[in-house]
């Protein structure tokens, strides 16, 4: 199941790697990549939270990870060999990343540290509107626990972050740490940003909110509001990117002069090459808009047709991580930042992708029965400036709100009163995603491309990282839509459907009052 020998294979041979977050979308793609292209790797240790649903942690791995369709290619070649490879190479470690020592006793924790050659942290809360205490815990504070493991065995760390840690900074953005666009953070003599004081301030504000809240629902809403308010204050669009930036700074401070690589993907979507084109799990950032269009939920969306949106296929991200791992072994005691992105070298304009989606949907909707449900979508999907969109939403919502209240008073409860819900869907999607559909930046990946050259894999498709390989028309109108149809949507007769245009991102928005919604839209405009 392996590929030709490369510097990457040589660097990873015999090494034992701990990966967190492998139950997630990117984690599965990374695990498949390592197993398929690096059969000589010493072992892959997965930190997985225990579940009462399963008799053992290994059973959870087999049910939620090993059974994934991401491994279909490997199974098709030799199913027995794939299962044998998993049994031999994959070691499942029961642990909770947010707990000191992952909830292990001292002996087990030190024994784990003694086995490992590298830690790859893919765990994160990617909910843009997460409650501040939760986002802070998983995206920032739990890195103290990773650092404790790293220090116990002098273990290198590869941190998976996001290009959007740059917040409200605009223009050309390179593989570096830019100053926050809002309130400043203190810095030490090495120029590193120190997060401790800000974290303490946030903790105090969280405690005050918890004292004031009178119910779980109110507490959740208040913590979402607080997260957005603080993120905007310091220069970020949402709680996710704010707390991920602080996580980067914590690692760079504590691992100074040690081995650290940070990989920043842009908007991760379905695979472009392998293990099979179009593989995806769940609904991602751009997909919420696709679903809303496919189901006729919204007729317009805020966005700049000429702006460049940064989408990167998941397999190119996984390859970037593997390259960073090899480089960390090859050149220890360095801090390297790599961006896995497309806008700097193969830009895709939002209006262009919109046109591909509409053309494919109107011409071939019958080829996507689960996505379009047999209905021909609209011929046009306009993108409007933020101010115009907001005014249109207000103009439509006010009479609809009045009419719905009147119907309620009269006892007229019509379950088909769907237009009002569609307007609410548009407003919620706008609040969550408008920042990403009206970009004012270009991400660059020169260091990542130079790394591919250094490792001798620039022309090796197994480790492709250059976004220039992407044909946007083919990818967005064929590969990606077909992937959504085949992998993201599950026939309800076969199991639970994952078709959720209102993802966790959008669901969380409904917890917040208009204060956070308006703030989110205002900051994105």
From TrEMBL:
Biased composition (Low complexity): 504-525
Keyword match Lipid biosynthesis: yes
Segments forming domain Thioester reductase (TE): 19-321
Keyword set includes Transmembrane: no
Region (Disordered): 495-525
Gene3D superfamilies, A to Z: NAD(P)-binding Rossmann-like Domain (3.40.50.720)
InterPro entries: FAR, FAR_C, FAR_NAD-bd, NAD(P)-bd_dom_sf
Residues of the Fatty acyl-CoA reductase C-terminal domain: 414-489
Keywords for the protein's UniProt record, in alphabetical order: Lipid biosynthesis, Lipid metabolism
Family to which the UniProt record says this protein belongs: Belongs to the fatty acyl-CoA reductase family.
PANTHER family: FATTY ACYL-COA REDUCTASE CG8306-RELATED, MALE STERILITY PROTEIN 2-RELATED
Name the UniProt record assigns to this protein: SDR family oxidoreductase
Source taxonomy: Bacteria, Pseudomonadati, Pseudomonadota, Gammaproteobacteria, Oceanospirillales
